Amino acid sequence: MRQFAVLSGATESAAAVRALNVLRAEGRLSRVEIAERIGVSQPAVTHAVRTLVERGLAREEGRQLLDRGAPRRLVELVADSWYAVGVQFDLTATTIVLEDYAGNLVSSAHRSGVGETDPHTAAVGLAAKIRDLLDDASVPGERVLGIGLATYGPQDRERGMLVTPVPTPQWRGYPLTSTLGDMLDVPVLLEHDATAAAIGEMATGQVGTTFGVIYMATGIGGAVIVDGSPYRGRSSNAAEVDHITVVPGGRDCLCGGRGCLGAEASPLAVSVRSAERPLLVARLGLGQSLDAGVTDFEILARASRDGDLEAAEMLDHSAGLLGSASVTMLNLFDLDTLVLTGPAFRTAGPLYRERVERVVQTRAANRDLSMPRVLLGIDPVLASARGAASNVLRRVLPLP
Amino acid sequence: MRQFAVLSGATESAAAVRALNVLRAEGRLSRVEIAERIGVSQPAVTHAVRTLVERGLAREEGRQLLDRGAPRRLVELVADSWYAVGVQFDLTATTIVLEDYAGNLVSSAHRSGVGETDPHTAAVGLAAKIRDLLDDASVPGERVLGIGLATYGPQDRERGMLVTPVPTPQWRGYPLTSTLGDMLDVPVLLEHDATAAAIGEMATGQVGTTFGVIYMATGIGGAVIVDGSPYRGRSSNAAEVDHITVVPGGRDCLCGGRGCLGAEASPLAVSVRSAERPLLVARLGLGQSLDAGVTDFEILARASRDGDLEAAEMLDHSAGLLGSASVTMLNLFDLDTLVLTGPAFRTAGPLYRERVERVVQTRAANRDLSMPRVLLGIDPVLASARGAASNVLRRVLPLP
Questions:
Q1: A365 contacts B240? CB cut-off 8 A
Q2: Has the ipTM of the complex gone over 0.85?
């Protein structure tokens, strides 16, 4: 039985762990640069690097030729020392990625979602899919540091279980992470899909350390990163944007309310609305797939991109409502940066980004303090699965 | 020139400071109890108490007779060692409170608001009002630890200035805290009115350390406390609930949007809506005051309490919209406790509490995890000014 340490935020202050994360974000660095980045003394960095080298996680090599002064050795992570698996699943799709210890994408796979499968069958199937991915990449299971599992909520993140009866009542309270961890003999970290995407976005270094995320797959989720850490709230189910009322008295929502963002503007809602237009359905060939609107939404997005005015109007309506909800999110969390990510933005991303930014730049309460900006995620389709892998790399330490 | 240390959150871990706060919240405690409450060793508490006693901030006296074992001496704060002033002001009203070092209310005063006064004149007037309050209470100015100043935003809290041109362009960037501090020779801490009320509510010990606050005066503000600290966001202007859209396409709002919570449901909005009903205006004698609806709202609240159905309907409409915005706030910040406070809840509090709770208990996304509850603040009228004073007591240390 291999041993791992799973870190909470509180213990991440160790210089060695911070050195790992800065090397993962920036690649090769000298000891001096590491010391500057993580704000500790040279001797502390020397000690930390020695520890990492001894444990096979980093190596020193190469020489950086400087204009003046002595050449310095560069530290880099040993990319093939360990690997992390990231999984994002929901009812309609499962995405699995494999990342090496430096955070490079090794491979990825798309599979069907859990549908209405019971949780044990789903866990068995997921373990098999993960083994397949490792086999295909010739990565031995004993080099895997852990599995990051990103999915919808509400979750009991600490206990590693969903607390929703979706898709079936057995899912509520089923020990998802411990079951999967026992099958694969590794730590499994549960995370919200939107939060995982936010962690992954932060790991790319493109957006700083305080920003919001709107994650759109079949439904719409949200996450907020403040000073480098996810805002968690009471039960780690924060930034639930799906039920912001955008059309009072509008369509019924599962939450018991009406006109919620999810019921009016999600890809599922857009596909439901499109199905009410027979000519549009016939012209674009909608309604052929049973995947809760995912395929229809993508068809509409491509048609819109290619000049179909009716499809464009459907998406523009949704994007406008998302813009309104984004104003609320930026106002409440006092943010000036919003990242749109998730598989629904694969093709529709530029249209939504432009529309949402227009709304928040004319309506966000603190726009006079700093003009809010809206960005598309680096890789909307893989964002959540890669963030889940990133979470493992940041939080799981192999013990000697 | 007297010397003070103004603490940031990071330095509040000192045992002496934590002992001060637990004594302020709970009154007399034995050293053993203090050690339990703040989670440090007995010797550390003994050292901390000795420091506080030497500096005249606490004393040990009395004997607690226990069923078994030796009697123990009790530690208590020296209530008249120092004082803090708390001020809440906006355009229509100014509330000033004086608290002693144990956090007891010594006196309070209500004055007119700043109206359209320029900021320097307002600061001079405020300094005079504070001196009057100290004179009336026979508290010498040199025993005042600081002034807590709670008001609307957006603010630059660190620099102690408003960054809004309300009520006049000169207010934007005017050095409010440094000017007032120079006049009175004490530290002045700026804070959002809603956040100050939340800090004060936490000091009462009635609501735990993670909760949301809706603060209603002329307009509507919000604040969130997580694990004992205010959620700040990017610019300390977080939890801006005033512009949550509650009626799409509704009344114009100053933010540039339409149908915002503030424009549809605030006391000002309720009074504007009431003014459109001539019979109601005549029956209740509305429209006699120029205070932005504050008086009219209070008249409506009393009429509603006394059985006037039309007045009740006006308030119920507002409370329902506030309930909807509260669902959004609880969902986004993942909270299960909401406190309604601020002067507008003086009479209308019970009606709003009941209505808002009904909405959030049927609609909050995580109600299956724990049923959300809605509470009225301990003292809605003084909440923000007392919280501003509490902020001074918690953050300003007199130096020897």
A1: yes
A2: yes
